[in-house]
Amino acid sequence: MRHVPGTFSIAARDPATNTFGAAVTTGTVSVGATCPYVSANGAAVTQSYTKTEHGRDAVARADDGERIDDAFDDLLAGDDYAAYRQVHGVGTESEYTFTGAECVDWAGHRVGDDYTVAGNMLAGSDVVTATAEAYESTDGDMAERLVSALEAGESAGGDDRGEMSAAILVHAPEPEFYHNLRVDLSADPVGDLRELLTEARRAKEQIRSETDDLFGDYPDEILDFGVKY
To answer: What is this structure's pTM?
Structure first.
């Protein structure tokens, strides 16, 4: 059992682009290593007393055609410590949230159309509400909406101890190198995540421009993630 306390996160699906994503921040280090999981058919987050297999197996089952709510129900049914877990996620046909009775207050979750938000050891319920509302109201691609959601949750109080790490993870038909961003230890991880996303977008445009100047037009598929290293 791996303990990752004090976390808030969002899992989401954009049905128009067939994109799945998850974002998370917490008061311990390296949250991106164990909590968010995405695939071509699902996004999942496992937190509180984190069991990585729940996130990994939920999206794997979604890829095999199972509804993600059914997958999570089955995984938790076989877990003797389910009361300590907090898991949530989205698939192509369903959303799912679960907050165990033994999660540390404040703990709770929210379900919207094609997204879920959950948190534990938070300043209060406003964190989850603000995260959800920011995701709903933000324009842009999945990465932009996820980071904006974390920013709003942090502004509403965030982790009751303050955050130390943050991450976003996205699965899209056209991948970008800013679809997997992690800030593993920082005094301002969400702010650093925003800076990292901004710099990643700028770097992509600069590299494309420089490559066009050197070689002219080229097929996008010639470069992995559209980037020349």
So the answer is: 0.90
Evaluate whether the domain defined by 2-226 bears CATH number 3.60.20.10: yes
Q: What is the pLDDT of residues 30-83, one digit of tens each?
A: 999 999 999 999 999 999 999 999 999 999 999 999 999 999 999 999 999 999
Structure token digits, residue 137 = 């109201």
Cα(24)–Cα(166) distance, integer angstroms = 6
Tokens of 116: 């879920």
β strands within 70-164, DSSP E? 85-91, 95-99, 108-112, 115-120
DSSP state of 162: -
pLDDT for res 107: 97
pLDDT digits (tens, 9 = 90+) for 155-166: 998 876 678 999
Half-sphere exposure of 130 toward its Cβ, with a 13 Å CA cutoff?
18
Domain map (residue ranges) of the chain: 2-226
Q: 154: left (phi > 0), else alpha (psi -120 to 50), else beta?
A: alpha
How many angstroms separate the CA atoms of 63 and 66, rounded?
Answer: 7
CA 148 to chain centre: 12
**β-pair type (7-14, 115-120):** antiparallel
